[in-house]
Design a protein that fits this description.
The chain starts with 7 loop residues before the first helix and ends with a strand. The chain has helices spanning 8-35, 46-77, 84-107, 128-151, 156-172, 182-217, 221-241, 255-265, 268-284, 292-315, 319-325, 329-358, 366-400, 405-411, 413-438, and strands spanning 444-445, 453-454. It is mostly helical. A hairpin with a 7-residue loop joins strand 1 and strand 2 (453-454). A two-stranded antiparallel sheet has the order 1-2. Helix content is 74%, strand content 1%.
Length: 456
């Protein structure tokens, strides 16, 4: 660890992994409710379980991004973080807000109260006071990292990372505006949800992935930065107007069907570019880096993001297709693989790289870490195929044949059982990953009769 202030990232990664465990456990619980609908129906209804599942996903991904920024910016800027005290204060605010959200959701507190109670907008249900706390934490973070970069060396990685992080914070402000017109409400809502995951988060993803390629492959910085600029340009060009593929059926003008279809089709390009970038960098690289797990997660991130966000997104993004598939299990298949590939795997990649350095155990337990990759990725791939098949049948029976929703659900129940089985694999993989980075110490290599020596 070159800079002592990088140690801040350790606290962020620890909290993020704790929430990761809660998130996948909540997903498994929700999957069980799909096959046993009355399970916990009085104590913890499905809508609360789903809120906890999706909200913990968003929060732990953000904590991972913040931790990644606190880890890599000192190295890129060649100076210590501006203020470690502000970094820990920011984390405390986010943890308190997260606990407040969980208590509010589970016990259904302050129902109907505009300030203390939860809102009814998916993914941004947080009470107003929690949203204020998030904004305060975001401002502290942006001040901290921006001052670090301004006082230090500027690189393409830090510039694009800051652009993504500033965009993330500014777009969240739309969560405070809740117009009474439903179509307008959904339009502003997508400014957050879409322009996060298919806009500014892609910038964050590209910059962190570029940093990992730089460290793991040894490719010249100039080559990495050229790829980075191309990826970011493609992401912004396609992603901003690609928001239109969410406007098809919410009451907006019909021209959005063509704009959304054309530009969202182009959203495959930046994800393909990121996949090509990762593999070309490894191919061109001259460094045999000992942290094979971080490299595996980096390549897996780029590959699964291309298929989950790119290919599976394209499958139902054209408005003529989306007319039938909108809101079916095909959407769930796309959402699960896209989030896992693009952002979950990205966080696990940077954590796999950073944690051994932060804890002075470099390298260690590559085998368990890589086993967790294949377990989680295999489970998520199987889940994606299962939900795709379920969604295809659902589309035909419900949208084409006109059968009733619940009758169709009974006919695809087998797929929900298989989805639950794949969820078990994902949870086991997540727990194995947490164990691999948190518990074992430095690996030992036995060399004949000689004394055991640390792996180098």
């Amino acid at each position: 660890m070159k800079y002592q202030s990088q140690k801040v990232a350790l606290a962020y990664f620890a909290v993020a992994l704790g929430l990761f465990a809660i998130q996948v456990s909540g997903g498994l619980l929700a999957g069980w409710v799909y096959v046993q609908p009355n399970f916990l129906s009085e104590l913890l209804p499905f809508n609360i379980i789903r809120m906890l599942h999706t909200n913990s996903l968003i929060v732990w991904l953000l904590l991972g991004f913040f931790g990644a920024a606190y880890f890599l910016i000192p190295e890129e800027a060649e100076r210590e973080i501006h203020s470690t005290k502000l970094a820990y204060l920011q984390l405390a605010i986010l943890v308190i807000g997260t606990l407040g959200v969980v208590v509010t959701y589970v016990f259904n507190l302050f129902e109907g109260n505009w300030l203390l109670g939860k809102e009814g907008r998916e993914f941004i249900e947080q009470p107003k006071w929690v949203k204020v706390g998030i904004v305060v934490a975001a401002l502290i973070f942006l001040y901290n990292v921006t001052m670090t970069v301004l006082k230090g060396k500027k690189t393409a990685i830090t510039n694009i990372l800051l652009l993504g992080l500033w965009g993330l914070a500014l777009l969240f402000l739309f969560s405070f505006y809740n117009p009474s017109n439903l179509a307008l409400d959904k339009q502003y809502w997508w400014y957050i949800v879409h322009l996060w995951v298919e806009g500014v988060w892609e910038l964050i993803m590209a910059s962190i992935l570029a940093y990992l390629m730089l460290k793991l492959t040894g490719v010249d910085r100039e080559v990495v930065e050229k790829w980075l600029y191309v990826i970011v340009a493609a992401a912004l060009f396609s992603g901003i107007l690609g928001t239109g593929h969410h406007y098809y059926w919410i009451g907006t003008p019909a021209y959005w069907q063509w704009i959304g279809s054309i530009f969202s089709s182009l959203e495959v390009i930046p994800f393909f570019a990121m996949m090509a970038f990762a593999f070309v960098m490894v191919w061109k690289g001259r460094r045999d880096h000992p942290n094979k797990a971080a490299l595996l997660w980096s390549l897996g991130c780029a590959t699964l993001a291309f298929f989950g966000a790119g290919v599976w997104g394209f499958l139902h993004t054209l408005h003529g297709v989306n007319y039938y598939t909108h809101g079916t299990q095909i959407t769930a298949a796309h959402g699960h693989l896209a989030f896992f590939g693009a952002y979950v795997s990205l966080n696990l990649a940077i954590i796999s790289y950073a944690m051994p350095i932060l804890r002075g155990r470099d390298p260690y337990n590559q085998v368990l870490n890589m086993a967790s990759f294949w377990l989680m990725s295999g489970g998520m791939a199987f889940m994606t195929f299962v939900l795709t098949f379920a969604g295809t049948i659902q589309t035909h029976l419900q949208r084409v044949n006109g059968e009733y929703f619940m009758d169709v659900q009974d006919q695809i129940a087998l797929f929900y059982w298989m989805r639950f089985g794949s969820g078990v694999a994902v949870v086991l993989g997540a727990l194995l990953f947490i164990y691999a980075v948190a518990v074992p110490r430095r690996e030992i290599i036995e060399s004949g009769d000689a004394a055991s020596v640390p792996a180098e």
